[in-house]
Each structure stands twice: as C-alpha cells, then as structure tokens.
Specification:
Pfam families: EVE. It comes from Ensete ventricosum. This is EVE domain-containing protein. This protein is an alpha+beta fold. Helix content is about 25%, strand content about 25%. It has helices at about 65-70, 85-90, 150-155, 165-170, 180-190, 195-205; strands at about 45-50, 50, 55-60, 75-80, 100-105, 110-125, 130-145, 175, 195. Strand 1 and strand 2 (about 50) form a beta hairpin. The longest helix has 11 residues, at about 195-205.
C-alpha cells in the first residue's frame, strides 16, 4: 500500500478518507447543505458565471468505497485512483458545483444510490502531474436506488430518452458525463434525492402555527 492508503496497481477509483470533515483543504468551512425535498428539475442546471452546471456519474465498488462510507466520512472525500485517460479527462473537466451520481458497480450491485457535488476541481496529488483527484461531498441519497437494468429498460422503451448516455455505450468507463435530460429522468426514476431527517425538520419549520380556538 502507498502512503495515500491505496494500492497503486489497483485501477478502480477509490476515494481516500479525509479527517478534515466538512472543511476545505485550505481551512475554510464548507457551507452546510440542506437537500431540497425533491431535487431534479429544481436542482437542475443553473448558470455559474459563463458556465452552466454539468452532470457526471462516478463509479465505485461498494466493497471498497460505498455510499455509507461517503456519508460516514462527513460527506466529504477525495476521489482519486482513476487511470483511464478518458475518465481522467472527464474529471479534469469538472468544476466546483457540478453534480455527480454516486454509482455502485460490481457484481453485487449496479445502481445509482446517491448524489455528490464537486467542491474542489481537479488537482494533482503526485509529482509530475499524472495522478490527480477531485473532492466531492454528499448531497443526498436516492429515495430508491436506480438499477442499471432499469436504465437499460428505459433506453429500450424510449431510445431518445437515453440517447448518448456513456454509461450504456462505454460500460467499463468509471467516470462518464450525464446529459441534463438524462440526469433529470434518472432522478425521477429514483424518486429524487435528499435527507429524510432534514426534510422532516424543514417541513416542521415551514408548517404554519396552529390557531387557538376561541370560546364563543
């Protein structure tokens, strides 16, 4: 094992654990995020300066780094270990604010289980600039995992709905872009994403006060 805690010969993308929970890597506190009650079209593309938000899909084997690991790590992790040149180029194209499906791969599970947001774009972690990473934080868990077979069935039923989705065209690629329309469709298939506890708290805050009955 290398000093970073990962096997340099292993080719799957495995985020490294960080001890600085909810803090940026230069010391600033990350803003607290309360997930929206239903984040698909309302959490869709927004203008970020001259660049619109883009969407991606990150694959990881749950035995190595699962959604539970991501959440238990304070929601923040470093996504590294990617070697494929095309996947690396996709990561280099990411910007802060971009969102990614968190996808469990492998024989046991192939499904979208949650959503993370890029909080720090590509940076090098080794001399020479070949090895790099992006930092991501969890935004919310899918209310229902969206399995690969469901996505394939959707593509068979409506070829236009999943047209150009690299997950189906290049199934071995660990990082793929997600067109906005496909992003929203998968969010709908999964019932949206968010934190149930945060939603209950939000609903309580938004609930109007009960009026006291007055005796006539």
């Amino acid at each position: 094992m290398s000093a970073s805690g990962r096997n340099p010969t292993h080719r799957s993308c495995v985020p490294r654990r960080r001890s600085r929970i909810r803090y940026g890597w230069i010391g600033e506190a990350l803003p607290f995020h309360r997930p929206l009650r239903f984040q698909n079209s309302r959490g869709g593309a927004v203008a970020m300066g001259k660049r619109r938000r883009r969407y991606w899909l990150l694959k990881t084997e749950p035995e190595e780094w699962s959604w539970e690991d991501q959440r238990s790590n304070g929601g923040v992790s470093t996504w590294d270990g990617v070697r494929n040149r095309q996947a690396v180029n996709h990561m280099k194209a990411m910007r802060a604010g971009d969102r990614c499906f968190f996808y469990h791969s492998g024989a046991a599970a192939r499904c979208v289980v949650g959503v993370v947001e890029v909080v720090k774009p590509w940076y090098t972690i080794a001399a020479g600039g070949e090895d790099g990473a992006v930092d991501v934080r969890s935004l919310g868990e899918m209310r229902k995992p969206v399995e690969l077979r469901e996505i394939k069935a959707e593509a068979e039923a409506d070829a236009e709905a999943m047209k150009g989705f690299a997950l189906l065209k290049q199934p071995r690629l660990s990082v793929v872009p997600v067109p906005e329309g496909i992003w929203e469709r998968i969010c709908e298939m999964g019932g949206g994403y968010g934190d149930a506890a945060a939603e209950e708290e939000e609903e309580e805050e938004e609930a109007p006060p009960l009026e006291e009955e007055q005796d006539e």
